[in-house]
Amino acid sequence: MWNLSKQAKEKFAKCNTLPIPETDEEWEMTLNEAKEEGADLLSQLQEELEEVKAALLQIVPTRFIPYIENGTLNQPSLPKSVRDDYLQWMREADKEFEQVLDAAYEQTEKAISFLSTEIQDMFAESLHDSIIERIKRDGNSLHLYINTDSGFSSKALIHLMFEDVISEESDEPLEVGQWIIYNELQKTEEGFAFRVLFECPDAQWTIAMRNMDAQYYYRPALYTILNIEDKLAQTTFEEYTQQLNPDLRYWLCTPHFIRPIKSFSDTITLENGKVEFNPDKIVVSLGDQLFTYEMEENNPISFIYTDKYEDPYAQLNEPLPFEKIEVAALGKDLELQVRAWNTMYANPEELTDIINHIFSKLEITEENEMLVTVYVNHFYQNGVLSEVIVEKYRSLIG
């Protein structure tokens, strides 16, 4: 039996259709901000409720229906007891879906132990928000090529192989461009079963097969660094390839094929193929096959992958000398800040005095509050914060 289902996802989404401020203080802040901006907040809230009214009436407990009908469910005039009850109902729905995801994760962890190291490595990172880039059917096998640039995996391009397919079910046709939102893998008597919930369009897809395997490729560290620094579009192909790590192997991966790169020069030499750059086109010849890509839509740099992971942030993990940590942590050089905090994170006992001194000087801002929360809780759990610092950051601890 599956834990993950389109129905469970839809129920979770419907229960979160109409979020509301949780406290009087949040309401006051929201109303003040609207007043400063000259916005008619109450009218906007009425419109928002009207837009989701039909969906809400299908899912909420009957005790909330009067407040939907009279339009006060998302208004500051809603009685506090009703607001707390509604928020608790939303939290319970969140918890219920979290339990679904936890159960799906447990099933996946059990199943991957029967599969290859490549599959285990792939599932060690999330497929959430990755996109199907290519679909290939070969006899009784299905090949999915998944691009994770918009997702959370270090593996930028994943080739999933479903071998000896037994069955396949979907409420929408499997399409290039679909976004993977959630997935679950199960071990079956015949082999394995894999379920994915997609968006764009919203769909549930389930495939059963005898075996499953994977190959994957990474973006060169240079690509990630240039992308973060917003310099990728300004970098020429020649400049890019000259800076690549010469000790790695590279592949040309397009929406139609994956081929090893033999060498870089003014162009790319492939095994049994060649690449030509025209002013407005990229032309790839593979035997008697010809593939053309418009240069406006495709940067040839984005077609280059490697099979070894390079950490683009490796320099940020280099520890700072202890005597330089305080100045760096409180300074304006972002790279040195990160290195300082990473050094403290890894050495809380040795740096207890420095950590407390830095926290005594640190000012919490809207920009740094989330990171400060992570660090202060880490150091609190390690028992290195003084009573004065614990009291100063009490609202962030826990």
Structure in words:
- 38% of the residues lie in helices and 24% in strands.
- The chain contains 13 helices and 13 strands.
- It has helices at 6-15, 24-37, 41-59, 65-69, 80-112, 117-123, 221-228, 237-243, 325-330, 334-346, 352-361, 369-381, 387-392; strands at 131-138, 141-147, 157-170, 179-187, 192-199, 203-217, 250-253, 258-264, 268-270, 273-277, 281-286, 289-294, 304-306.
- The strands form two sheets. A seven-stranded antiparallel beta sheet has the order 12-11-10-9-8-7-13, with no helix packed on it.
- Strand 5 and strand 6 (203-217) form a beta hairpin.
- Helix 1 (6-15) runs antiparallel to helix 5.
- The two termini are 36 Å apart.
- The mean pLDDT is 93.
Helix content: 25-40%
Kindly report the average pLDDT value: 93
- Class computed from helices, strands and strand pairing: alpha+beta
Q: What proportion of the residues form beta strands (DSSP E)? A: 15-25%
Cross-sheet strand order for the largest sheet = 12-11-10-9-8-7-13
